[in-house]
Amino acid sequence: MHPAFSVIFLTTLSGVGQGLFLALYTGQVYAVAKVLPGHADTAAFYGLGSLIALLFLGAGLLASFFHLGHPERGWRAIAQWRTSWLSREVIILPAFMGLVFLYGLVHYTGWNPVFFEIGQQANIAIDLSMIVGAITTVFAFALFIATGMIYACIKFLQEWASPLTVINYTLLGSASGFTLATGYAAYQGAPGLLKFYGAWAIILTVASLITRGASLIRNARIKYKSTLQTAIGVRHSNIQQKSQGFMAGSFNTREFFHHKTAAFMKSIKWIFLVLVFPVPVALLALGLSSAALGLLAAAFVVQYLGLIAERWFFFAQANHPQNLYYQTI
Amino acid sequence: MTQLALVIDLNVCVGCHACVTSCKEWNTSGTAGYMSDENPYGQDPTGTFFNRVQTFEVGVYPNTETVHFPKSCLHCEDPPCVPVCPTGASYKRDSDGIVLVDYDKCIGCKYCSWACPYGVREIDEQQKVMKKCTLCVDRIYDESLPEAERQPACVMACPTNARLFGDVHDAESEVSVAIRERGGYQLMPEWGTKPANHYLPRRKARIQIHEDELERVDNPLKKEGIHKGRVIDEPTLDDVTSW
Amino acid sequence: MREDNVIHNPLDKSTDQNARIETKNTTCYMCACRCGIRVTLRDGEVRYIQGNPDHPLNKGVICAKGASGIMKQYSPARLTKPLKRKEGADRGDAQFEEISWDEAFAVMEERLKKIRATDPKKFALFTGRDQMQALTGLFAKQYGTPNYAAHGGFCSVNMAAGMIYTIGGSFWEFGGPDLERAKLFVMIGTAEDHHSNPLKMAISKFKRQGGKFISINPVRTGYSAIADEWVPIKPGTDGALMLALTHEIINQGLYDREFLVQYTNAAQLVNMDENSTEYGMLVRFEVPPEEGCFDPQNKLWWDRELNRPISTHTPGADPYLLGEFKLDDGTPVKPSFQLLVDRVKDYTPEWAAEITGIPVETIKRLAYEMGVTARDQKIELPIAWTDTWGNEHESVTGNPVAFHAMRGLAAHSNGFQTIRAMSILMSILGTIDRPGGFRHKAPFPRPIPPCAKTPKGPGDVKPNTPLGGMPLGWPAEPDDLFVDDQGKPVRLDKAFSWEHPLAVHGLMHNAITNAWRQDPYPIDTLLIFMANMAWNSSMNTAEVRKMLNDKDDNGEYKIPFLIVADAFESEMVAYADLVLPDTTYLERHDCMSMLDRPISEFDGPVDSVRIPVVPPKGECKPFQEVIVELGSRLKLPAFVREDGSRKFRDYPDFVVNYETEPGSGIGFLSGWRGKGGEKFLKGEPNPKQWEMYEKNNCVFQYHLPKSYQYMRNWNQGYLEWAQDNRLTRYAEPILIHIYSEVLQKFRLAAQGKWDGKQPPDHLRKRIETYFDPLPFHYEPLESQQTDLHTYPLNAVTQRPMAMYHSWDSQNAWLRQIHTYNYLYVNPVTARAQGIEDEDWMWVESQWGRVRCLCRYSEAVEPGTVWTWNAIGKASGAWGLDADANESRKGFLLNHVISEELPASEYGEHLSNSDPVTGQAGWYDVRVRIYKAAEGEPEISYPQFDPMPTLPGQDTSRKSKWLKFFAGGKKAG
Ligand SMILES: Nc1nc2c(c(=O)[nH]1)N[C@H]1C(S)=C(S)[C@@H](COP(=O)(O)OP(=O)(O)OC[C@H]3O[C@@H](n4cnc5c(=O)[nH]c(N)nc54)[C@H](O)[C@@H]3O)O[C@H]1N2
Ligand SMILES: Nc1nc2c(c(=O)[nH]1)N[C@H]1C(S)=C(S)[C@@H](COP(=O)(O)OP(=O)(O)OC[C@H]3O[C@@H](n4cnc5c(=O)[nH]c(N)nc54)[C@H](O)[C@@H]3O)O[C@H]1N2
Ligand code: SF4
Ligand code: SF4
Ligand code: SF4
Ligand code: SF4
Ligand code: SF4
Ligand SMILES: [Mo]
What we know:
Chain B contains 8 helices and 11 strands. By secondary structure, chain B is of the alpha+beta class.
């Protein structure tokens, strides 16, 4: 496929936003549960954190508009939620953003009534932010699923048609969000959360390395169901396309081919494998031990750049069966 | 239920592209138009077409077959392009099974084209909406046209009559009979899309000659003899013997 | 599903509601096939062009080109203003200024008047894919210049001449395969013929009926793709194949004896007395002066019963086909079939396999398939007819083996003899004008050769006088040649001279070179109509372009004045001194006349017209109008009254009222003649003729009575009908020339045994060799003179179905299909040179070289490379950007093809053409290929300076986007 930057940015940016929210909320839950020391100024910490998440999500949303031929009709995309994962994504993303906004707003304004308390000593207060956060979390995961399923549900795009696609979207988004959260915690001066986020960022990054690695291995072994023989219905081992019927390209040669060399593909693969996984882990580890904001920020930036490469590769690697019809000019 | 479709006879398609340009011609000024062209007179001209003819070579010299292969939307009975469309712009008509795009709903997200295994949807790069073969829905029901012309433009154009049009659900239709009797097949059956369009394979006519048929009693050579001309004034035995 | 809530209603016709919708019939001219079309206009703009279902030729179908006519009509390449070359600008620079038609006419009138008053042959008129040779030829004749020809000489004259001199009709527009009834179809060297749509329709029907389709061609594309059997052959070797097939068919006794005896000259006796001046001539029992152009029935058979010579077709006679005999006076004679048998004796399948690359078993099998199908699958139609000898036949029978061949045979310098061989093969199978075989189309069959003759010497070219004969004709003997006392050519292109005696369509491909070299003489004005001779219809194109711009020592152009009548910004236009912008086919009146090449069907004559569907763009003027205007201004007799006043208002008026001779009743159109349109073919002018054509789909069709539809060479009813309707002068039988006496006469002249005109000494051997009365195979002339170790490969071209010659690159739709071309090479051949698929490579002949892109193909014989015709363009021409793919990646093979042969014993500057007919030997060139060097620019070679946009070219559609929507813009 031809990787479109609009979609690369949409998925990676919103992944960061989702991950960051998840980090914030898990942090809050742990803090509320007194497992972790929370940040002193919750209003500032969660309020600003949510804002940052919103900025990423908003940027993603904005990027998505560049993908549309008719953005002004974008609203129509909510119509087919019964059948279309894209439609579902289009519904969930803004809903999720609204919830993140609400979550941040609750924290920021401090209008946070406690509904009930739980725990052995009934010392865990379930306040509005906790409830909003829980709902938002559901949406965060729903969004990961919707986004992943957009790709995973196209069964003949065999590189994508796997649960790993959804898992990877979830884990990579979460990892990048947690990495960002680590830096954010350092910036905000929340040492307890810093370690927590950092540890989870590393865990999630390693986990995503495993699942992403698994998908790479899986994809390398794919046996394509469609062949030139099934595509044109001629049973012969030697079929060569001589003409596509047009010579200077068409939508079908632009949209479904990355037009890059195998070497380029390979280098992108290695770039993302290095940038998304070992480097951020190392930077995180270093940054955690020295509590150096710069290193932690770098960890996020590097990982995010790596994710752009990862997403580019994700799209480029998918081999659409229609390409069988467009082999040579 | 009706399912309109094309049946394309690869046995007679000569790859002339008549179906390609007549499709463009009909549709660019029709309800599916315009169909824009980029760099029409410059480098790398490229434009929107609903139907394209490709060429494949099968086998190795001298046992080579050249196969011309026209392809447009196959109007799948279970079209993967439809459910994925977020806006409902892509739809399949209940009444006749034609898969269409509602240009006024389409947001140009291209998702449906990803979901079509056959590479027959094309975004119009100027109009920014997804386009594809409409099975000439604006011809086949147009009562202002004479009955015989209520057929897709490509079908009317095709000089070899390689394109048949009709209802593949009607067992008695020309298309169903052709599919049944001439081994009609679908493209990429492995995905369960059940394309309504079918293709008819190449067939080979051969002549069998048995050795005993080569020469007949009335072979003209027998009549002819290889005649040197009869020579009558040269000496004969009659002249020299006296028994 | 949700059909109810769609917003964009696909059945919405609102755009049409307030628009002015009109539908008009006319005739397509996106190619020479001339299908009937129906044009729908919306608010005056072309909205849709479809095949006319009521047209006999295409019955509603259309082709890729035809359906793209819209983009021709609105092409930015269109010329719209008369143009004059700017003072001081070089030819080729395309620097022009607009002038008025008045000025253009004034310039031409003055110049042409002067030439006509002094030496009319200094005006040369050459027309390309012209479909109005009736008019252009008439103009030339009336003007008095012999220097007129159309495309035939560089196109397929070998096909016309080879077959017409053998069977009195030919493939091309004059006849074709009856695929309705054939069981076996053999297509040779055809990619895509003029008969594009009808042939496609017929082939598919034929295949569906279960017939077997064999294609003999070095390349398998187009029609050949759907052949049941592909027989790859080495180019230029088909003669060997035809002769071997003939050998095998005769050997097996699979020939149609009765047909040969009755309808050909196979049984006629040939004089075998080498010392006689009659050597090789058919023996005549009485020798009255043979007047008229028909075969007098005064030849002899050797009767088997009486064992003596007997007048042919004597009732009850049964002649020998084989044997040798002595006449009473001692003259040794042989039936011509015996000579054919002698000829093919050594032409065994083994011999041919070596030459053609086709396995022996295949050749034998092909022969048997043809012979057995012809013999055992006989067709008998219950149609009674009478032959010219008065024999009544209860039925028409046929042998269902049909052939079709075109330029793969024609465009070789051995094509004439090859095509004779094929015609003879068709004849011995008994398939001429019979069901399932070859069928004639009116006005064919014609006598062998047809009657029209050129003048016979320079005396017929006189100031202010029409030419004393036709500019083109059919020589029947050496004395018909158009040469002076020294035997030198009178025509600029040397047609009808000893260099190319039977050049019945002229040699347009040598016109520019000869004019430039001033050999045989300098000319003054060259008018080129509808031919792109600065590009694809010239061989040696780069040099020809220089010649067009070349000056003598005094700084005068060697070709002093060049007028180009074109509709588009072609490469040729760049070289004009004066450009005349023609209309498109949708803007003018035209006729496909019985006097030229009508669109007749097997069952009778058909002709057709074009009637404008849109007004001319800008100042475009139909070239026909230009001719009528010029003819009137020059006071050419056919165009003015006695008093010198103008006779015809315009071209439509001319078409209605012109008669070949006063009162002849024969005009350009054959339908609806007579005062009220009640006559056809012959009749007084009918003022309402155009209206009647218009009402009848622009076509006139006549179905012959069934009994006149077959065996027309010998069908008394038909021949008399043709005579009555003035299609032919004589109602005499047209016997097939298995043995060609016409050729023998030229050979006798070369041997000094002819009383009349004799070839110059240096050409005697050439004439003697190639004017063999029986077909034979020889290597194409250029190959004979090429070092085949250095240049081992053949290079040929083919037409793509979606492009017409050079003129469709301006078409925004078609050029997407072919925006540049590859050289197709068998992978084995390419790899031997280290060339990979898609590599840049060179193709080089002894004449020059071209850099191009390689494309591997398994569908080409390894000794052949090929490309599509005329896709490559000169930069900037045709309304295209200077960097368009056509000029950057596309290439023209013509640069490696020479218009002349290497110097030889026969002289210098001999045309690279068939020695008999002057047919251009396009497909004779021998080449080698090699990889382009590392670092060479990735662009085709040669390149030319970009041609600028011309004054008057409408570039408004030349934007980055084209959003064609007829009848106004549609909102995005
Ligand atoms: N679409 C389209 N149609 C056209 C035209 C066009 O430009 N475009 N042009 C029209 C004109 S002017 C003409 S003259 C006709 C020509 O019609 P064709 O004669 O069909 O045209 P060519 O393309 O010259 O095809 C020649 C064929 O002969 C093969 N060939 C070459 N050498 C040999 C040989 O030695 N032996 C054999 N057996 N085969 C050989 C080539 O591979 C090729 O397939 O087409 C007419 N129709
Ligand atoms: N290498 C190679 N060269 C070949 C051949 C080949 O097989 N191989 N084939 C040869 C053959 S068979 C042929 S017939 C020739 C064809 O060669 P040409 O006769 O030169 O044919 P075109 O390229 O069609 O160019 C004709 C010119 O007519 C112009 N034209 C088009 N429509 C109109 C009109 O309505 N009015 C006027 N006035 N002009 C118009 C076009 O703009 C163009 O300039 O090419 C020959 N050249
Ligand atoms: S029009 Fe007919 S013959 Fe021509 S390419 Fe299309 S399907 Fe094939
Ligand atoms: S061919 Fe493609 S676009 Fe057409 S219905 Fe099937 S899936 Fe949809
Ligand atoms: S491009 Fe248009 S038709 Fe296709 S999925 Fe998107 S909205 Fe639907
Ligand atoms: S049915 Fe109509 S829209 Fe579809 S390919 Fe044919 S002409 Fe084009
Ligand atoms: S074959 Fe020629 S005349 Fe017929 S529709 Fe095509 S371009 Fe026109
Ligand atoms: Mo031609």
